[in-house]
Amino acid sequence: MDGLRLLEQRETKIAALQKAITEGFESGIVENFSMDELQKELDVE
Predict the structure, then answer these.
(1) What is the pTM of this model?
(2) How far is CA 4 from CA 11, 13, 14, in A?
(3) What does the alpha-carbon distance between residue 24 and residue 18 come to, in Å, rounded to a whole number?
(4) Domain limits of the chain?
(5) Looking at residue 45, what is its pLDDT?
(6) Which of 33, 13, 17, 37 is nearest to 25 (CA)?
(7) CA separation (Å) from 6 to 1, 14, 20?
(8) What is the mean pLDDT of each run of 10 residues along the chain (45 residues)?
(9) How far apart are CA 41 and CA 45, in angstroms?
(10) Which of 3, 7, 12, 19 has the fewest CB within 10 Å, making it most exposed?
């Protein structure tokens, strides 16, 4: 039974990863992104 449980957990993780990847692709491409500006914002927090 442990094997079946592990398989189900793995399939659940894979499904969650696939969903996250799809959401990422569907979110579009960021324009005017600046890594320097992001780092400044994070440093303030």
Answers:
(1) 0.60
(2) 11, 14, 15
(3) 10
(4) 2-44
(5) 81
(6) 17
(7) 9, 12, 21
(8) 92 98 94 93 91
(9) 7
(10) 3
